[in-house]
Design a protein that fits this description.
The protein has one domain. A hairpin with a 2-residue loop joins strand 1 and strand 2. The protein is about 30% helix and about 40% strand. It has a four-stranded antiparallel sheet, with helices on one face. With about 80 residues, it is α+β, with helices and mostly antiparallel strands. It contains one helix and four strands.
Length: about 80
């Protein structure tokens, strides 16, 4: 597995890997993570991946983290 890029944006750690002809996009926030796989055949250049950490897609990732965090906290409180 090759690390393509790692950085933090708006408190979310974003890691991009290349493995088995796929790009693996991993978003981490606290104890939660979201992972997406994109075929390398669907991406002309690695710079095209930047659309995954901007705009509507990244907004949806943030919303999903909020929902995940709410569910996780509610479950922990019920232990």
């Amino acid at each position: 597995m090759r690390v393509v890029k790692e950085f933090i944006q708006e408190e979310i750690r974003i890691s991009v890997f290349s493995w088995n002809n796929k790009y693996i996009l991993k978003y981490e926030l606290g104890p939660m993570e979201q992972t997406f796989k994109v075929s390398e055949m669907d991406v002309l250049e690695e710079s095209d991946l930047e659309s995954f950490w901007s705009g509507e897609f990244f907004d949806q990732v943030k919303i999903r983290f909020t929902e995940m965090g709410n569910s996780f906290r509610a479950q922990v409180e019920n232990l």
